[in-house]
Design goal:
This protein has twelve helices and twelve strands. By secondary structure, the protein is α/β, with parallel strands linked by helices. The structure holds beta-D-ribofuranose and calcium ion.
Length: about 325
Amino acid sequence: MTARKIIIDTDPGQDDAVAILLALASPKEIEVLGITAVAGNVPLELTQKNALIICELSGKTNVKVFAGCDRPLRRDLVTAEHVHGKTGLDGPVLPDPKIQLQDQHAVDFIIDTLRECAAGTVTLCPLGPLTNIAAAFEKAPELIKKVQEIVLMGGAYFEVGNITPAAEFNIYVDPQAAQIIFRSGVPITVLPLDVTHKALVTKKRNDAFRNLASPVGIAVAQMTDFFERFDIKKYGSEGAPLHDPCVIAYLINPDLFSGRHVNVEIETQSELTLGMTVADWWGVTDRPPNAMFISDLDADGFFSLLTERLAML
Ligand code: BDR
Ligand code: CA
């Protein structure tokens, strides 16, 4: 089996950090061509730094990290320090990175990679607002058809919203970018809140990270310790949902997940429901399906995979 080539587009974020670690720990299944940072959970200055910090923590210091867009395509940036803390990676104390950003802009890296690789061999994995990917699609529309798949964390149907009553954070921050992606014709798999809210770090699962007793295991336990206070208070849940690692786990073992191939449209006009992912779950329109919308996972299988892989770093 050859490793699947991916670009991780991300706004770390504790859960983004765990997703990056999972990908870097899985070289048999996944080849990370590059990590592109975008503004989202915190401003770009911090997300790009956090991406470097995580690569260094993983020990894979040759991974290329690129800085991308510092604001959504057509509106002001909304951030989520109330969830992720001031740095975006609050929890562990991690050293400033020694490795450096690449000089190239993330959008140009995405474009050049698609241009150079054979059609259908590069998967894009957005874990934050979709600004970088949409900017690449706007700048080089002829390359859209070369994308193998987009596997993204974003949106919600039954869970509705987390940043507003109607919208999930990643889609809400840049709904115009999300609309470009969902209308692109590229095969899309969506890991929405409906599934990520079932990937909860319970005390036992967090202990399993900590008991790895490695710098990675301890840092992941400390990140989820920090991250969970917000969700426990808000939802009364057992622990933090590990949203973004669901994307990488799906690539490694799609059998852990299930969902439906449905039509998904993005609300870009309404003030009240801006960024809503209108998923035709019940097939009540004749709009053609454009996304595999995941709704369920084998949570124990997911956490075994994650813990087993983190142990390899
Ligand atoms: C998404 O928003 C961010 O807070 C997380 O990193 C995740 O990508 C969940 O709504
Ligand atoms: Ca994220």
